[in-house]
Design goal:
Structural class: mainly alpha
Strand order of the largest sheet: 1-2-3
Strand content: 5-15%
Distance between the termini: 56 Å
Radius of gyration: 21 Å
């Protein structure tokens, strides 16, 4: 009890101190989701807060299978020849949509809208460059707004998720490495090393720019039917002991949203242990 008349006031009595600074703050437990801005559709978490810090999180309902992925050119490749330029422009568009979401989260709405416009122009087969957007984002402090090391994952999870997440952890594995068409174009995977939020955002920018360069270098080249062209989203389901909630304890809510949005919707779906059809 604290001092007061006549009986004083109750002091916070949490089961454990705040994991960030040791203060004994009141515990607040609530469900978050399934539909919120910057939130994986369908995901419901049971979250315990102390102050603005997440103490624990449990999955009540996993996210819905992603609907924001353009699978058409990759599915068509299984049955017929497909222009390499279309494959790579789809890749660039996917990454720019992810980048736009992060830009909006760090309160750069104008640049977020610009990223969406660039993605739409790429989708419409217009000639466009990503470099000016990337430079503007750097000047506006995009990377400075993301704390170094935030959302870092280990190699096991990065490799299980595959795609840009794996390459953001420094792995050069990419099914395009073995494609003779990409080999003739001098394709070499771009990578990062830190495997954190900053690295995943940088990987999206790098792969989007590389994809447009490949599309420009091979406007009329077709990829043979049945040939693999690694899609721009995460690939495989991780082991069941990996959960997106393992990344959240100790984070402020704004940081948690950044971590969630540093993965595309396919990766979040897999980290919630829900297979995508």
């Amino acid at each position: 009890m604290m001092g007061g008349v006549p009986y004083g006031r109750m002091m916070p009595m949490p089961p454990t101190p705040d994991i960030r600074d040791g203060l004994a703050l009141d515990v607040y437990r609530t469900q978050v989701g399934p539909f919120m801005p910057y939130w994986p559709a369908g995901l419901i978490l049971e979250v315990t807060f102390q102050g603005d810090v997440i103490q624990s999180a449990e999955v009540v309902q996993p996210p819905y299978p992603p609907r924001d992925i353009d699978r058409e050119p990759f599915d068509r490749l299984l049955h017929e020849q497909t222009p390499l330029a279309q494959i790579e422009r789809t890749r660039a568009t996917h990454h720019l949509v992810c980048i736009a979401r992060v830009l909006s989260l760090v309160e750069l709405p104008t640049l977020s809208r610009q990223a969406q416009i660039v993605a739409a122009r790429i989708r419409a087969n217009e000639t466009v460059a990503i470099g000016p957007l990337r430079k503007a984002a750097a000047r506006a402090g995009l990377m400075a707004a993301i704390k170094p090391g935030l959302g870092r994952i280990d190699d096991d999870l990065a490799c299980e998720l595959g795609g840009p997440v794996r390459r953001a952890a420094g792995h050069v594995l990419d099914s395009r490495n073995d494609d003779p068409t990409y080999t003739r174009l001098g394709f070499t995977p771009v990578t990062q090393k830190q495997s954190d939020c900053q690295a995943r955002v940088a990987q999206w920018f790098d792969e989007a720019e590389q994809a447009l360069a490949l599309a420009s270098a091979a406007p009329h080249i077709l990829i043979a039917q049945g040939q693999l062209a690694e899609p721009p989203w995460a690939l495989r389901a991780p082991p069941l002991d990996y959960r997106v909630t393992e990344l959240l304890p100790g984070l402020e809510w704004s940081e948690a949203l950044l971590v969630l949005n540093s993965f595309d919707s396919a990766a979040l779906c897999r980290m919630g242990s829900l297979e995508t059809p």
